[in-house]
Amino acid sequence: MVKKKYSEIANQDQSLNQASCCGCGDASTEVYNIMTDDYSTTEGYQELADLGLGCGLPTQYAGIRTGDTVLDLGSGAGNDVFVARHETGPEGKLIGVDFSSAMIQKARENAERLGFHNVEFREGDIESLPVNDSIVDVIVSNCVLNLVPNKAGVFAEMMRVLKPSGHFSISDIVLKGELPKPLQNAAEMYAGCVSGAIQEKDYLELIQKAGFSNVQIQKSKPIVIPNDILSQYLNPEQIERFGQDQGIYSITVYASKPGEEVKKKVSLGELRAANQCAPGSGCC
Question: For residue 33, how many C-alpha atoms fall within 13 Å in the half-sphere facing its CB?
Fold first, then answer.
């Protein structure tokens, strides 16, 4: 269902994406840009690749350096990949992975139009990444993991493809408190990034269980769903209660893969032998 919906989104108007929940469901007449952050002043931004489907600016917090290999999970039309390329320069390597063939085609067309030859888009599932082990410096992702049932599997894959001491910065939707049942069960709201989200504490726990260190929330902002969208799923009484004991948040999370530390204990005798030193010579 998600794949079908995002294939449709690839070819629909950007303003419709921004006025709905991650491009899914009916658009709101009350609020514009329900989820998205403004990329327009970000260096490397390409308007033709911005479908308005994100919920943060992960590249802003990712610490991308010149020459890095950067992987974008759920790369869509390529917006975050192109922003990351501005940071890596032509010396870097950029890989975008998406499971929608329509999105991959759109991203490749955009890269060709822009003349970016160190950018590559691969069709595949982020639960089983088409990427080799330990080759990525930085992973970014924008409002994607909440759509994946097996989030633990995605974090395990991220750990696999990152180099030792590599890191990620991802923006995603999480919950605080339980959503009303009608929202939890709504297919459109799942594809719209909301009902597929899990509790923030559980999300952070999955990252830690995958073996990552230095886990920290870099940014958090509440997501307000307008009443004209909520009214499709909740009655007036439920709408009134909504938000009082539950919240929907966009968070940007950082974590790093532990580095390889090789420690070897060497005795004084071994040091002397290696340096051909005689005991008492003082050369060690």
Answer: 7
Question: Which residues, other chains included, contact 245 with Cβ-Cβ below 8 Å and sequence gap of 6+?
Answer: 177
Longest dimension (CA), the chain: 89
pTM summary value: 0.79
Domain ranges of the chain: 2-274
Q: Tell which phi-psi region holds residue 44, choosing left (phi > 0), alpha (psi between -120 and 50) or beta.
A: left
Structure tokens belonging to residue 11: 């070819």
| C-alpha distance from residue 57 to each of 83, 250, 252, 253 (Å) | 10, 10, 8, 11
Query: Rounded to an integer, what distance in angstroms lies between the CA atom of residue 17 and that of residue 23?
Result: 4
33: left (phi over 0), alpha (psi -120 to 50) or beta: left
Rounded average pLDDT over 197-204? 92
pLDDT (mean) for 26-32: 52
Question: Which listed CATH number (3.40.50.150, 3.40.50.620, 3.30.70.890, 3.40.1710.10) goes with 2-274?
Answer: 3.40.50.150
Number of C-beta neighbours around residue 51 at 10 A = 25
